[in-house]
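Appendix C: a fully annotated inverse folding record. The material below is reproduced so that readers can follow the format used throughout the book. The structure is listed first as tokens, followed by the designed sequence.
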């Protein structure tokens, strides 16, 4: 007679619980980092894409209608959403005549967002330097377009009062909010649309100076955020702060 021995091997309950505990600790440590890196990558790529889109709009306007941002001679009028570069030389006309899927807002505060389960006017973090500081109070000084992908582009309402032109081989200076010849040629891009954090990108290391060029923005929730100041000039749009410029340069 033969005897068969059923020798089964398995983990004990204690071993399983210890393993699950270790997995949970590792997940708790790594998942937030992965989420931050993913969001950072999305912000970078969306900012780069939007800058390219707005620059291409100026070049297309120059090709089709004979003027780009440097050729703007008028502010957006009483019916900005209806302006066309065939008859009006404004930034609103450039956008309307070259881009599709746009939604125009007379002021950025007309955009609606969800906060704490309620629908409220679009707001930004009060630390933003839009129009020299003042946060949401300054949003009333910006027109806004929401692009087809949800990105918000803010345009200073006085754009058209002064030439949006920069001499060849000249780089932007720290007078973004100053009284230089391009004082009205600025705006912002919110790559995350109306969703939070609605906070301007900032330097983790160095100073936010276009002239010092020592700014570094790390992939963390405090510095790698969703609002990027920009300057319109000639046939391009470019970052107006060192932090925004760093993000654009490091975007793939």
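Designed amino acids, in order:
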């Amino acid at each position: 007679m033969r005897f068969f021995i059923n020798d089964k091997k398995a983990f004990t309950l204690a071993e399983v619980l210890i393993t699950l505990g270790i997995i949970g600790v590792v997940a708790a440590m790594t998942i937030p980092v992965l989420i931050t890196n993913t969001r950072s990558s999305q912000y970078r790529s969306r900012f780069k894409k939007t800058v390219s889109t707005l620059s291409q709009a100026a070049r297309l306007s120059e090709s089709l209608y004979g003027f780009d941002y440097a050729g703007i001679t008028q502010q957006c009028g009483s019916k900005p959403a209806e302006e066309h570069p065939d008859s009006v030389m404004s930034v609103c006309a450039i956008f309307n005549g070259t881009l599709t899927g746009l939604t125009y807002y007379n002021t950025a505060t007309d955009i609606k967002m969800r906060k704490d389960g309620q629908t409220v006017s679009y707001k930004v973090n009060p630390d933003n330097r839009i129009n020299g500081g003042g946060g949401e109070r300054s949003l009333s000084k910006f027109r806004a377009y929401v692009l087809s992908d949800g990105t918000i582009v803010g345009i200073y309402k006085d754009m058209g009062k002064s030439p949006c032109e920069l001499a060849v081989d000249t780089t932007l200076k720290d007078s973004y909010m100053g009284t230089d010849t391009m004082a009205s040629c600025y705006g912002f891009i919110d790559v995350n649309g109306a969703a939070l954090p609605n906070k301007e990108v900032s330097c983790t290391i160095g100073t936010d100076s276009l002239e010092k060029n020592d700014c570094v923005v790390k992939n963390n929730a405090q510095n790698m955020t969703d609002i990027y100041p920009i300057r319109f000039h000639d046939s391009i749009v470019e970052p107006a702060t060192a932090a925004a410029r760093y993000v654009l340069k490091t975007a793939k």
